[in-house]
Design goal:
Blueprint (H helix, E strand, L loop, with lengths): L3 H4 L8 E5 L5 H10 L4 E6 L2 H13 L6 E5 L2 H4 L9 E4 L8 H7 L7 E4 L4 H13 L3 E9 L3 E9 L4 H9 L2 E7 L5 E12 L7 E12 L2 E12 L1
Parallel strand pairs: 1-2, 1-4, 2-3, 4-5
Antiparallel strand pairs: 6-10, 7-9, 8-9, 10-11
Length: about 230
């Protein structure tokens, strides 16, 4: 799960979060580290075995007092919460079915955020359409493409003039002394640069979308994090 999933939720000590689709609890731990010790995580999953395993991890890592786990299909039964959470994050096959309940769970009068992770663009489109139908406005989406980069080095002739000192200042290169074919000492510049790994294609593309909604004459901000398979 991308780190952006946490960043877009704008979590801090004391935040209250509802997460559906806990899985192994990896993202749950990241959320808890952000909201601990005054915050709370309401975690949901349809698989009781997963919840039992995650609960053991929470107890082992000292998070038992800031978590409440429940076996529940939020797409059918909702979150069972009303106006008490600052953020909601979904990792579900049909996240759009839980949007209405997520909105109901969010606090009134304060900025709240919404996030969803999906493997298919069709899921993303359906979720955003549902958000729009429920009054979310000004939707902005940013694409986050994951790439693997290699660090390479190259030795070139020393560049002259103003650019030389500027590159030294930014640490992009360094001067070295070497010998030419006649054995004469010459100054060259060793450059360090990044090269994309062409043999490995991106596994996922991430999309960060911002949404605004007017509710009871108070502006609420929701941010969605969604990911699609490339």
């Amino acid at each position: 799960m991308p780190l952006s999933s946490i960043v877009t939720l704008d979590l801090r000590n004391g935040s209250v979060v509802a997460e559906a689709g806990v899985g192994s609890g990896s993202l749950s731990h990241s959320i808890l580290r952000a909201v601990f010790p005054k915050g709370m995580l309401y975690a949901y999953d349809v698989d009781s075995c997963r919840l039992d395993s995650v609960q053991l991890d929470f107890d082992r890592h000292g998070f038992s007092s800031t978590t409440k786990l429940q076996q529940r299909d939020v797409c059918i039964d909702g979150f069972g919460l009303e106006q008490c959470v600052d953020a909601v994050f979904l990792d579900l096959p049909t996240p759009w079915l839980a949007v209405a309940s997520a909105k109901k769970a969010m606090k009134n009068g304060v900025p709240c955020r919404f996030g969803s992770f999906s493997p298919c663009i069709e899921q993303v489109q359906q979720t955003c359409n549902t958000l729009r139908e429920l009054g979310f406005l000004d939707i902005v989406t940013m694409d986050l493409c994951q790439r693997v980069l290699r660090v390479e080095e190259a030795v070139l002739d020393k560049p002259m003039g103003k650019d030389s000192s500027e590159h030294d200042q930014h640490g992009a290169s360094e001067l070295i002394v070497t010998a030419d074919k006649q054995g004469m000492k010459v100054q060259k510049r060793k450059w360090t640069y990044l090269v994309p790994n062409q043999r490995q294609q991106p596994a996922h593309s991430g999309y960060i979308s911002s949404h605004y909604i007017e509710q009871q004459s108070l502006a609420h901000k929701f941010v969605a994090m969604v990911s699609v398979q490339s």
